[in-house]
Amino acid sequence: MGDTFIRHIELLGYEKRFFPSQHYVYMFLVKWNDLSEKLIYRRFTEIYEFHKALKEMFPIESGDINAENRIIPHLPAPKWFDGQRSTQSRQGTLAEYCYTLVNLPHKISRCLHVVSFFEVRPDDMSPVTDSQIRKPEVFLLPKDAKKNASDITGPIVLQTYRAIADYEKSSKSEMALKAGDAVDVVEKSETGWWFCQLKNKRGWVPAAYLEPMDGPDESEEQEPNYEGKTLRKPYFLLQKCWVGLEELWHQSTISNAKSIHNKGRKQISQETYRRNSKKYMQNRRNMRGNLKNKDIISEKNEQEENKSKAQPAVPPRPSKDLIMNRCTESTRRKIM
């Protein structure tokens, strides 16, 4: 077999981590010539140091001698403080950089410096973390995003699933499960294997071993139906493909998996619709009641205000005798 080289590098997004301190790492899916696919994580400072070393190795292709001969792509230097905004905004540039890098002449794209930088490290499979600190936030780059920062998704709340049976891993890229384990799903592969994380462990597990936790998001999702299909691992596990489902789990597990994947989306949607409709009608009734109360209060206030503005009643004219008794002598003479 020939030398190892990279076929393609795809930027998936980035993670916001909180251990040992808050920082950001980019997620790359690296596809190799042996059809394997590896998920790696790199800080931008690491990528920039790699870039500077690559330029020193190939001064002509980097344009140091003559700028017109440059074929190695440009990469902006890190900022004094790389926050979330700068991490998000440079994703388009970084995705284009990786695409150009892989398509450079073989003496550059397949050199040991490039190959070794994108190889899987131990912390890619099991990142160092602290159970007392909150888990990383994942920001995925949509596949149809056209290098526009406004297309970048917000923080992705990873879906949590529960293991319905014990699972023993058969390779380093997989992850063992115990019945009842709650795992976060990072990636769902069409092969029937999902890339999950459990505390500080990460790896691929069969999708049929997982059921969604109780919650509106999970219940609304239509699960793929793997019944009757050969469960096939991703490319980097082809050497250990399993032909039948019977080698993975016993009959009770299969029945549990069927009960998961045979959920009626239409029925769930109707229930959700009815639930939302009840809330909507209740809100409408509350709004009408509030408006009615406001009208009554407003009408009372208006009546009271009108009363306060009304002119006082005119008292009756005093009798002639009362006037004569109380008036002055001058007034009495005029009347007489």
Automatic annotation (TrEMBL):
**Pfam families with a match to the protein in the record:** NCF1_PBR_AIR, p47_phox_C, PX, SH3_1
Question: What CDD domains does the annotation carry?
Answer: PX_p47phox, SH3_p47phox_1
Q: Which GO terms describe its cellular component?
A: cytoplasm; NADPH oxidase complex
Where found, per UniProt? Cytoplasm
Basic and acidic residues compositional bias, start-end: 292-308
Q: Does the keyword Transport apply?
A: no
UniProt-recorded name of the protein: NCF1 factor
- Annotated SH3 domain ranges read 156-215
Q: Which UniProt keywords apply?
A: Cytoplasm, Phosphoprotein, Repeat, SH3 domain
Q: Please list the residue ranges annotated as the PX domain.
A: 4-125
MF GO annotations: phosphatidylinositol binding; superoxide-generating NADPH oxidase activator activity
Ranges for the region named Disordered are 282-336
The keyword Nucleus is assigned to this record: no
